[in-house]
Write a structure and sequence with these properties.
- This protein has a two-stranded antiparallel sheet. Strands 3-4 form a two-stranded antiparallel ribbon.
- It is globular.
- It is an alpha+beta fold.
- It has 2 helices and 4 strands, in the order βαβαββ.
């Protein structure tokens, strides 16, 4: 029997203020253009995707548990976003992390 896979994203969620602004922009755009979805923080969340991978469905819980442990060790950090672009209904920015992130992730 072939192994089933599920697509999962590792994402950063913005601050409440940035989330609110992104949702307002999404609503505004949806009033002027045809959109696939509107950000609402319920079903569609403003976020930055860091990584996307396909995991065997029987390993999803383990992958989530490991990721939860890793995130506990990462301090908050700021990013700046620049170079806006859009493709296939998605908005893209280049993001630059401010400061140095030196944390042992797994130990």
């Amino acid at each position: 029997m072939p192994t089933e896979f599920k697509s999962c994203n590792i994402v950063l969620f913005p601050s409440a203020a940035v989330e609110h602004q992104a949702i307002e922009w999404s609503i505004s755009l949806s009033k002027r253009f045809k959109t696939r979805y509107v950000l609402d923080a319920q079903m569609y969340h403003p976020h930055i995707t860091l990584y996307q991978a396909h995991y065997p469905t029987n390993s999803i819980e383990k992958a989530q548990a490991v990721l939860a442990e890793v995130t506990k060790k990462v301090p908050q950090f700021e990013i700046t976003m620049h170079n806006f672009s859009a493709l296939s209904g998605f908005i893209f920015y280049d993001a630059t992390k401010l400061g140095c992130l030196k944390t042992p992730f797994l130990g």
